[in-house]
Specification:
This protein is an alpha+beta fold. It has helices spanning 10-17, 23-27, 29-39, 45-60, 87-93, 102-109, 166-210, 240-272, 311-317, 372-435, 439-466, 477-492, 504-507, 510-531, 570-583, and strands spanning 62-70, 77-83, 114-116, 138-145, 148-158, 233-234, 276-282, 288-295, 305-306, 322-324, 341-351, 354-364, 497-501, 536-545, 551-559, 587-592, 601-608. It is built from 15 helices and 17 strands. Helix 8 (240-272) packs antiparallel against helix 10 and helix 14 runs antiparallel to helix 15 (570-583). The chain starts with 9 loop residues before the first helix and ends with a strand.
Length: 609
């Protein structure tokens, strides 16, 4: 935008006519020129407004000066700066004028110079708020550039107690012309800087999301490995490493998802100059949930939900933006957190027809409303952030696909090479066993064959776990059983051997699964405290049945310990197991263990599926 030449305006004629005025006015020309030079110095908008106020007051001998910038609608003020009013007094006055009433509103509606001897008697005056300094004489002139109304310059109370003169009004008009040019240039500079900041913020978000810190746009973690199935699987610790891999991957994806959404919230808050930045994601019940927050106050926390009945949720999920002048009084909001904020932008994060979430940038109560340019830039930022999230999701999917492909390759190698070689080795040993006439050799070979069978079973379990897809449920029953076994291994000094039969994760309900885990914990605790066992086997069979044929899950915890002497304190724990099973329609009993001649104990706990 080319800055207009001052001589193109009627106000410039006033400057040319100054030389024909009185000696007093001519003597003030150097002051006017110095004032114009001062006003044109610098490009930062708010400092420019402050400088104009101070210069106008000094040039006209006014005690107070103010400058109101007209908002984008043209019927109010978007900014208001003052000179001569003490900061403490300004805080006591409170809200700045909005330009809708009084002499300030009159100058906006009718942009012509106003000079008054006593503004308190003028019918257009709306009076002063409490704590406002007393003012009587008044001079107000409009600030225009190329016919566009930018604001008004207000002066009050001459230092010498006199009224404002024609000379004061002429110089104020000339200064207003120069102020208009300075404000126009500062606005252009501020708009360019603002666009640059938003572009840099979009780049920062994209870089963060695509530099290895990506996220699942849904905010819900997908778990690449499950451990349930429909065929029988058994083994000891063959799935332990896979379990650790699952937990590590879930944690990694959780951290990356949270990081990505937090980056969006932080950048949006910084760029919008807001009190907070929030990212919300859709919930299964049609509402929204806060999943990332950038704020210095505890007013808003992660996990807060906005129900679907809120009038703005449907608009947001349909891809519409919502702007509020004051969220604390907006009837469309039903969340208590809204009471802490004022002007607010609520923007959908949508890309390619999908609404991935919602971005909220609220300012403090009484804060400056968002301008039209800020809304436009924020909307573009939200679209860019949504696109970056989509790209991050695609990148993450490619990475995980590579992991799954590698797992498939490992599983194929284990099945086609390792297991086949173990089978061949086992068959060779069995042939050697049949051909040997030495009993000790036959016994040793038989034990070796048994170990090979167990190893093959463990490898089958590992293969089964590796081949599970990402849609399996997180923290299934199998994983929780293995977790309990791993925890029990610390006090025991050895790890119990797990065995799973049937579709453990998918067949067993949540309530039954919770009770089964509690029963397992009780059984392992009793074994550690009383059994003095050196071997424990834990079996979870999802293909079992009760006596009446009802499908059931059966938990067996067998050891080679000392058994249960009469009157042993374990019997109270066993009664607890029985009551827990019976409350679900199942049963619990104790039988012989793994030791020689049935030594030790086997606790069998079962409940309907």
């Amino acid at each position: 935008m080319k800055a207009p030449e001052p001589e193109n305006f009627p106000e410039a004629d006033d400057a040319r006519r100054l030389q024909g005025r009185s000696t007093e006015l001519t003597a003030r020309v150097p002051q006017l020129l110095e004032a114009m030079r001062s006003v044109g110095t610098g490009l930062e908008l708010h400092s420019t407004l402050d400088r104009i106020c101070e210069t106008a007051a000094r040039l006209t001998g006014a005690r107070y000066a103010a400058l109101g910038v007209v908002d984008e609608t043209g019927d109010g003020l978007s900014d208001f700066v003052t000179y001569g009013v003490d900061a403490d007094i300004a805080r006591q006055i409170g809200h700045r004028p909005d330009g809708h009433t009084g002499l300030l509103g009159e100058l906006i509606r009718h942009p012509e110079a106003i000079r008054l001897t006593d503004l308190t008697t003028d019918p257009r005056s709306a009076g002063f708020p409490p704590h406002h300094p007393s003012m009587r004489t008044f001079l107000g002139v409009p600030i225009r550039v190329q016919g566009e109304m930018l604001g008004n310059l207000y002066l009050a109370e001459k230092n010498d107690g006199t009224e404002f003169t024609d000379h004061d009004q002429h110089m104020a008009r000339v200064l207003a012309t120069e102020a208009g040019l300075a404000i126009g240039n500062a606005r252009l500079y501020e708009a360019a800087r603002q666009r640059e900041r938003w572009i840099d913020g979009s780049v920062a978000v994209t870089t963060a999301l695509l530099s290895g810190k990506d996220a699942d746009h849904s905010g819900r973690l997908e778990h690449p490995v499950g451990t349930e199935g429909t065929e029988e699987t058994e083994g000891t610790e063959g799935t332990e490493g896979t379990e650790r891999t699952e937990v590590t991957e879930r944690t990694d994806y959780a951290d990356r998802a949270h990081h990505a959404l937090t980056v969006v919230a932080e950048q949006a808050r910084r760029l919008a100059d807001s009190a907070a930045g929030l990212v919300l994601l859709p919930t299964s019940d049609g509402g929204l949930e806060i999943v990332a927050v950038s704020s210095d106050t505890p007013d808003v926390s992660v996990g807060t939900r906005i129900p679907g009945k809120s009038a703005i949720v449907a608009k947001l999920l349909a891809g519409e933006s919502v702007y509020m002048e004051d969220s604390s009084t907006d009837s469309r909001l039903v969340s208590r957190q809204a009471a802490h904020f004022g002007p607010t932008m609520v923007l959908p994060l949508h890309s390619d027809g999908r609404v991935l979430g919602v971005l909220v940038t609220p300012r403090a109560i009484g804060g400056r409303p968002f301008t039209e340019s800020e809304r436009t830039l924020a909307t573009r930022f939200a679209s860019q952030a949504a696109l970056a999230l989509m790209m991050a999701e695609a990148q993450r999917d490619r990475e995980r696909l590579a992991v799954f492909e590698d797992r498939d390759r490992i599983a194929r190698d284990l099945h086609d090479l390792v297991i086949q070689r173990l089978f061949a080795a086992g068959m060779t040993l069995e042939t050697a066993q049949r051909q040997s006439d030495v009993p000790e050799v036959r016994t040793g070979i038989g034990k070796a064959v048994d170990e090979l069978d167990v190893t093959i079973q463990e490898i089958r379990t590992a293969i089964f776990a590796l081949q599970q897809g990402s849609s399996e449920a997180p923290s299934g029953l199998r994983t929780r059983v293995l977790r309990e076994i791993n925890m029990a291994a610390v006090p025991l000094g050895f790890k119990p051997a797990p065995r799973f039969v049937g579709a453990v994760d998918s067949a067993v309900g949540e309530l039954t699964g919770k009770n089964l885990i509690a029963a397992l914990r009780e059984a392992l605790s009793n074994t550690f405290r009383h059994a003095r066992a050196s071997r424990i086997e834990v079996t979870v069979d999802a293909s079992a049945a009760l006596a009446d044929g009802t499908p059931a899950v059966r938990l067996s915890v067998a050891d080679d310990g000392v058994g249960i002497p009469e009157g042993d304190r374990r019997r109270s724990g066993l009664r607890n197991l029985r009551r827990r099973a019976e409350s679900l329609g199942g049963s619990s009993e104790v039988g012989p263990g793994l030791g020689e001649d049935g030594g030790g104990t086997t606790v069998t706990w079962q409940a309907p599926l």
